Amino acid sequence: MALYPQAPWTLQGSAVATLHLIDIERVRSLIPQELDIISVFPGKTVGGVYLSNYSTGSVLQYSELIVVAAAVTHSEIGGWVSHIYVDNPDSVAGGREIWGLPKELAEFTWEKNSVSVRQSDCTLCTLNYNSLFSIGWKPRLGASSFSSKNSELLSFACGVEAQFGLANAQLTVPTTSPFTDLIIGQPWLAISATQMHLTVDAPQVLTKKR
């Protein structure tokens, strides 16, 4: 039986996020019709990959891979998570049962400047990165995300305080990866976060899905 803390979750560790331009037509079928996809260029939305390692001081310790398929809006701007993987079964259960996120188990291999994520015999992605520089203070930023659980469309807020910086990143997504058709090519921006303190709030019900 999986045991997990109730929301909000507070998590501490480090992360690297890559931002990509994504073809809207490739992701339209993944997005609930209640959400409007934000176009940043003709036919393009913005999404990306987020890789993190939550360690001592977190309500649960685990690694995480999040794929954001699109920037969307429903009275507020947020991201739509199409794929999400962790290496802790309690995190899988909590993510699914609290937030309606499609969490699955995977294996994470962290090296000094790289991380690889596998599920069974399939490599989901590999990220090689080097930090270029960090800003001299730790701002606190907020963001929103959307999800669905049963017939309800949910939204939840995240707040993060960290030492942010720019990174040079090379992302490899094999053709056998479940999200190979979404994340194509190299990121146009990569951001690192160290000394990170992340809070994920309980979800709010926006509407019943049609």
From TrEMBL:
Protein name (Swiss-Prot/TrEMBL): Acetoacetate decarboxylase
InterPro entries: Acetoacetate_decarboxylase, ADC_dom_sf, NDX1-like
PANTHER family, alphabetized: PROTEIN NEOXANTHIN-DEFICIENT 1, PTHR35467
GO MF, one example: lyase activity
Pfam family, one: ADC
Signal peptide range: none
